[in-house]
Amino acid sequence: MVNLVVLHDFDGLPHQFYTDVLEKMMAHLGVDNFDVAVVLCDKDYIQKLNAQHRGKDVPTDILSFPFFQLKPGERPEIGQDDVADLGDLFLCMEQVVEDAAFLKVELQPRMHHLLAHGLCHLLGYTHYTEEEHVLMEPLEKELIVAASKRLPKQD
Asked: What is the pLDDT of residues 18-68, one digit of tens each?
C-alpha cells in the first residue's frame, strides 16, 4: 500500500497518480504486500534531508530511505513481528519540474522514472559504480513499462 503524505502541495499531477504508479510497480515485483510512504515536500525540506543524510547541502528530486538492508535481487520477507514497510520516498516536485524542463521531458514520464528509481533504492539497488548501474537500469525500465500498463477492470 502506498501512503501519500503532502507536506508541500503541487498542482502538476493528481495525488492519485503517485499511488497508482507505485502500486503497479510494487505489484509487478511482488512486493505489494508492503507499505511505502511517498512524501511530497519543498526544496528547503529536501535540502535539509539531503544535507543530514547524504552530506549534500543542495536540493534534489528524490530521496529514498529503505527499511530493509537488501542486496540487489533480494526481496524482503515479513516475519510474524515485523513491520511490512519497504521505506519512504521523499519527492521535491519543484526540483522535479525544473529537472524535467532542463532534460526537455514531460512531467509524467519523468515521474515514472523517479518512482521506479526510488523503488529500486528501497530494494537495495544503487548506482555508485558502473557495475551497480548496469544492474539497476534494466529494472527501472521494466518498472516504467509495468506502470504504463492499464490495470484490468474489476467486476
From this structure: 999 999 999 999 999 999 999 999 999 999 999 999 999 999 999 999 998
Which of the listed CATH numbers 3.40.50.300, 3.40.390.30, 3.10.20.70, 3.40.50.150 matches domain 2-148? 3.40.390.30
- Provide the 8-state DSSP code for 57: -
CA-to-CA distance for 63 and 39, rounded, in angstroms?
10
pTM above 0.85, yes or no: yes
For CA atoms 144, 66, 10, 19, the dihedral sign is positive
Handedness of CA 24, 26, 31, 36 (dihedral sign): negative
Report how far residue 21's alpha carbon sits from residue 4's, in angstroms, rounded to the nearest whole number: 12
Cα distance between residue 139 and residue 124, in whole Å = 12
